[in-house]
Amino acid sequence: MTTLSDGVVLRPARRGDETGILACIQALADYEREPDAVDNTAEMIDETLFGDDPRAFAFLVEGPDGDIRAIGIWFLTYSTWTGRHGIWLEDLYVHAEHRAKGYGVALLAALAAECLEKGYSRLEWTVLDWNEPAIGFYRALGAEAMEEWTTRRVTGDALSALAARL
């Protein structure tokens, strides 16, 4: 746990945080113009982050009254080139009323520190190409765009069809 200011702390997520984490996920989906895309539930978050075999992790910024102000949800990747793990930041979200207070920087710094502590080789994430405030924020922190790489995704019927080719 790291104290940021005025009773605000950055800490790993723990059981009991699921509802606040889900609220951040929904707020992020709203911001990204996908308000109906979230199928996640507090129960699913509990299993994913705190179950017997966690596959994802979260850091959060908590206010003095226990309110979750920001989240960073991440999981491990593996680089065959470096032979080491890395961190994939799935979601970084700071509630609008708490932006420009250093919470996003603190969450990214905590993830960078996690990489260094564990010997991970990289910290990576995607950003929507229209999200200029986020792009500028990341650029100011030294994050480089991977211009030659594009993300690909298979979901829904296409995922089922691909699996059926086996």
Automatic annotation (TrEMBL):
Segments forming domain N-acetyltransferase: 8-166
Coiled coil (UniProt feature): none
Signal sequence region: none
PROSITE patterns xref list: GNAT
Annotated keywords: Acyltransferase, Transferase
Any one Pfam family match given in the protein's UniProt record, by short name: Acetyltransf_1
Gene Ontology terms for molecular function: N-acetyltransferase activity
Entry keyword Acyltransferase: yes
UniProt entry tagged with the keyword Ribonucleoprotein: no
Domain of life (superkingdom): Bacteria
SUPFAM superfamilies: Acyl-CoA N-acyltransferases (Nat)
Transmembrane domains' residue ranges: none
Family: Belongs to the acetyltransferase family.
Descriptive protein name: GNAT superfamily N-acetyltransferase
Lineage summary: Bacteria, Bacillati, Actinomycetota, Actinomycetes, Micrococcales
